[in-house]
Amino acid sequence: MTLPTETAVPTAHIEVWSDIACPWCYIGKRRFAEALDSFEDRDRIAVTWRSYQLSPDTQVGLRKPEVEALVEMKGMPADQIRQMFAQVAATATQVGLDSDFDTDIAANTFDAHRLVHLAGDKRDDVLEALFRAHFLEGEVVDDRDALVRIGASAGLDAESVRDDLAAGAGADAVRADLAAARELGVTGVPFFVANRAVAVSGAQPKDVFVALLERALADVDAETEA
Hints:
This protein is of the alpha+beta class. The chain has helices at 23-38, 66-74, 78-94, 110-118, 123-135, 144-153, 158-166, 171-184, 206-225, and strands at residues 12-18, 45-51, 191-194, 198-201.
């Protein structure tokens, strides 16, 4: 007797382009997670975190306070930048996130994105650890030793992380994400794309993300029935 096989349930794919040095990406990640956790068909949603660099030309090892770096980059008064940071910190607090922009160190995030790609099924944990390290703990996220510590804190093997970073592992994956962002016309992050068809930009409220998830599944189901 042959038992009937179950038909695979169609899955919607959400891709999220973000940067570790972007506080709104940190906030957006938390709001998106809240929407995903409350979504009835959570098991039908696949999420892939993609790399993006807001400041790809930042010198590796600069070790300059973020406020100072932004003063030089944007030509804005330091007090104005601190006021902007205070507003972002207040929003972060609303979603349960702590931040300390006084300890925030400007960094080139390319290697940090490599670490995320090297994390396998711990990618979400590593990304969370990177955000926390950058925005709260004053870690320099373009320092290899710091990245090894951060990876280990999220459950990765420290020596494997060190060896992989030294060998250049993950670089092609980061470049592929950056190229895909250019093809899609992404100019700011966080940027959420459902099935490469519908996009939401910014750290939107939870209900906006729920609507995106509903639309993503509806589109997949409609395509399956066609």
